[in-house]
Amino acid sequence: MSDLKNKILSLVKNDLEEIEAALRQNLNPYLDLVHNIASHILFSGGKRLRPLLMVLSARMCGYDGDYDKTFSTIFEYLHAATLLHDDLVDEANLRRGKPVANLVWDNPTAVLAGDFLLARSLSIAAKTKRPDVIEVVAGITENMSQGEIHQLSRKGHLDLTEEEYMEIIQRKTAVLFQGACHTGALVADASEEKGTQLAAYGFNMGIAFQMVDDLLDYTLDTKVLGKEIGADLKEGKLTLPVIYSLKTADQKDRTRMEQIILNKDFSAEDFEILIAKMNKYGGQAYTKKLATEYVSAAKVAIRTFNPSKTKDILLMLADYTLAREA
Amino acid sequence: MSDLKNKILSLVKNDLEEIEAALRQNLNPYLDLVHNIASHILFSGGKRLRPLLMVLSARMCGYDGDYDKTFSTIFEYLHAATLLHDDLVDEANLRRGKPVANLVWDNPTAVLAGDFLLARSLSIAAKTKRPDVIEVVAGITENMSQGEIHQLSRKGHLDLTEEEYMEIIQRKTAVLFQGACHTGALVADASEEKGTQLAAYGFNMGIAFQMVDDLLDYTLDTKVLGKEIGADLKEGKLTLPVIYSLKTADQKDRTRMEQIILNKDFSAEDFEILIAKMNKYGGQAYTKKLATEYVSAAKVAIRTFNPSKTKDILLMLADYTLAREA
Q1: ipTM of the complex
Q2: What CA–CA distances, in Å, run from A95 to A80, A224, B110, B226, B283?
Q3: How far is A230 from chain B (nearest CA, A)?
Q4: CB atoms within 10 A of CB B137
Q5: Closest CA to A246 of A271, A216, A278, A269
Q6: In this complex, is the C-beta atom of A116 within 8 Å of any C-beta atom belonging to chain B?
Q7: Is any Cβ of chain B less than 8 angstroms from the Cβ of A29?
Q8: Model-level pTM?
């Protein structure tokens, strides 16, 4: 584990424990089955990054109420709901090293459990009694579902552009980070300016987070990643490292790469060849560079906030987006 | 078409047209694909009963704003979202005489389009700027997903009780009717008493509506019903007419009925035998009797409202629940 990760974890230890408790307290289904499925996805080693971002954002805006941890569950429940539905979409087998819910149970049950988590998320949003928060949360869901459908509808299409990739990851990932930070400002009754700044922090960080996530698919092995290597590609999901490399490759190399990509049962050797070609054309380096720029933008966005321990943590979290190993 | 239906339709013609327009105006996806899937389910001859109930409830409480039709879309979008997810659950082929969305497109796309509609529904709820409305709408979704999971987890179980059946249909159907009527009262700033009464009207009517729906599965042919005959049973879904008949049948008849039910590929002859046995033990009559009682309860619930054209329509709608043919 990196030093940065250890440092952050020591600073947010209490917050994470309270978030964890809130996630258990607010789940509240009437069926044991729903509890079991929701728990399978919720309590399997998630980082709690999204709720943490809400809690820290609220604190940086001077929130002094008792409900920040409760409200923060909105963003983890929402995240878990989309994971349950995405696993169905992706036909993946593993999530965080565990079999996905739709294999442990079945597709319909996993979908309905996702619906329940989505509804829980919105019920808790309603408890804020703030229509602006609810609008943010409902808007996140609209964006995420459309981002996922967009990605799904372009599966296996080798002509996916960087612009389209950006559109997709904004909707499917960045708006959730953005909404979590924005909500923190809203529940703290912060000025609109502060809300906008924190929303921008979250949005840029979310973009960087997804880019690094997509990059990890081309760098790590199954044990560290908790999912199969080359999983994105096997699902026909073209991400920035590949998109960029295909665009910049010469005809011969592009053809070779396309052959590997289009063959969903590519071998480990094929995958290594692909990674080498991508390195040759700078796909990974380009993605890392862009992610670094978005992290900078995230940090700049909260520049005018007064120095504080909380601000330091938000800055460290932005840096950690780049440094993370899983 | 029955006289009652014609009379109601002539009285709510303008409302239905405005609801229809609002459903088109508020959909607003950024992807054509999402628009197409949502339209497939939304504009295929739905009765618009749920939005209509909201509009009429609001009017009976003196609502005079401009947004009743907009807000009413909440309940049709929510309904459509659950249909998209239920069709996946039910593995049915037809819905309102058309192939289901998850067959026209695929399961993941249908699930995500359902998520989008659910989110639209909550976005519009947020536009009411009323946390109480949002709490109602989010609560509906929690209940519906759990009701569906409950039903799913008990599929094919011959020991499903009437109590469990009631629990399931309350959650999966009645709370939506209840919430639509309740929301009408809330957006009209009605007294809590009026809100409670309209909610009770909707709840009881929803119960009756589902019971009649379950009854229709044992009375109509595919052309009228728009779905396959005996569909519930083929999905392993035991409903009140069957539950009651199994409970009251003698050993020999029960065994025969169970054989037919457990054989998912039962023939048309088998199905006729089953219906005859159910008639013998009064399953259909019992269901009809209970539905009639719930319709009475719905009407009693709004007894103290002043006489008005709107109240007349609500009373007629309750009666129509029993008279409907599809």
Answers
A1: 0.88
A2: 11, 12, 22, 40, 46
A3: 21
A4: 31
A5: A278
A6: yes
A7: yes
A8: 0.91
Selected residue of A74, A87, A112 to mutate for chain B interface (largest B Cβ count, 10 A): A112
Quick: pLDDT tens for A207-257.
999 999 999 988 755 455 455 668 888 888 999 999 999 999 999 999 999
The letter for the amino acid at A173 is T
Residue scoring higher pLDDT (B161 or B107): B161
- Chain A: closest CA distance from residue B74 (Å): 12
Place of tokens 């996922």: A148
Vertex B192 angle, CA B132 and A117, to 5°: 30
Name the helix (H) or strand (E) containing B260: helix B251-262
C-alpha A189/C-alpha A201 separation (Å) is 18
Hey, of B122, B124, B144, B153, which one would you mutate to test binding to chain A, going by the most A CBs within 10 A of its CB?
B122
Q: Smallest CA–CA separation between B46 and chain A, in Å?
A: 22
Q: What is the pLDDT of residues B186-203, one digit of tens each?
A: 999 999 999 999 999 999
Kindly report, residue by residue over B9-63, the tens digit of the pLDDT.
999 999 999 999 999 999 988 888 888 888 888 888 789 999 999 999 999 999 9
pLDDT tens by residue, B72-124: 999 999 999 999 888 776 667 777 778 888 777 888 888 999 999 999 999 99
Contacts of A122 in chain B (CB under 8 A): 122, 134, 137-138, 141
Q: What is the interface size between A and B, counted as CB pairs within 8 Å?
A: 150
| B123 with A115: Cβ contact below 8 A | no
**Structure token pair of residue A107:** 């597709």
Comparing CA positions, the residue from B58, B59, B55, B29 lying closest to residue B42 is B29
For A323, other C-beta atoms within 10 Å of its C-beta total 13
Q: Which residues of B touch A147 (CB under 8 A)?
A: none
What gap in Å lies between CA A214 and CA A191, rounded to an integer?
A: 35
**What is d(CA A170, CA A188) in angstroms, rounded to the nearest whole number?**
25
Q: What is the mean pLDDT of chain A?
A: 91
Given CB atoms, is A130 within the 8 Å cutoff of chain B? yes
A152, closest residue in chain B (CA to CA): B109
Contact A46, B165 (CB under 8 A): no
Tokens, residue A166: 């950006």
User: What are the C-alpha distances in Å from A32 to residues A70, B67, B96, B316?
Assistant: 22, 40, 34, 40
- All domains of chain B, ordered by start, with CATH? 3-317 (1.10.600.10)
Contact across the interface for A112 and B29, Cβ inside 8 Å = no
Cβ distance B118 to A115 less than 8 Å, yes or no, reads yes
A77: helix, strand or coil: helix
Between helix A131-153 and helix B131-153 the angle, nearest 10°, is 50
A156 touches chain B (CB under 8 A): no
Residue in A29, A82, A115 nearest the CB of B141? A115
